């Protein structure tokens, strides 16, 4: 499945405030042990419609509302989605040519569709997590060395 990532505009101040309030109200149901949650909505004709959602979806909605409430734009990408090299490079905040070098060095698995490379979202995120972990470890070692040498 190929999913394209579209730029998401930043929420307005009104949207952010509504998201904060809605997130707080919605988070109340997360304390329930129920596997599903039922919500009643009014449609455009004023009729009440009931919707049953898995609690995991409600938890995701609360997370999304929290991000929007902080003024952040949010995109949802299926874990098994395949990305173009440009989409993946954008996720890592690197240039496309640099990302292609990572693929050619076999740092990240990919497959070819004709002449185009495709990478799985989960593989890109696994690489990001691995690199972030290595960076944190190096920073911790530098901080320890700095303390040993009294350079603080």
Automatic annotation (TrEMBL):
All copies of domain Helix-turn-helix, residue ranges: 83-130
Lineage top rank: taxon: Bacteria
Any GO MF annotation of the entry: DNA binding
NCBIfam families: excise
Full protein name: Helix-turn-helix domain-containing protein
Lineage: Bacteria, Pseudomonadati, Pseudomonadota, Betaproteobacteria, Burkholderiales
